[in-house]
Design brief:
Layout (H helix, E strand, L loop, with lengths): L5 H22 L2 H45 L9
Length: 83
């Protein structure tokens, strides 16, 4: 297989730069910017919702453990085990 000539390398470089330029031009349209902003806003909403649910779950776990300790304190005869 023959090596590329400098002219062929130049054509490849120009084709790459043209593709890069056209790709950037198409992605700069307002439609894509709006979609990106919508996606960012949706992600932030989901992260806030997840944080809220995590806090509520932690609070429920704390209350559940406190209720179990209180129940064990109120009924010490249940802790003696089998006779």
């Amino acid at each position: 297989m023959e090596a590329f000539t400098p002219d062929q390398w130049l054509v490849l470089l120009l084709a790459f730069l043209l593709g890069l330029f056209l790709g950037m031009a198409f992605l700069a349209s307002p439609k894509w910017k709006r979609r990106y902003r919508d996606e960012v806003a949706r992600r932030e909403e989901l992260e806030a919702e997840n944080a809220r649910l995590r806090r509520e779950a932690d609070e429920m776990d704390t209350l559940r453990h406190a209720a179990a300790r209180d129940e064990a304190r109120r009924h010490p005869e249940d802790r003696r085990g089998p006779l």
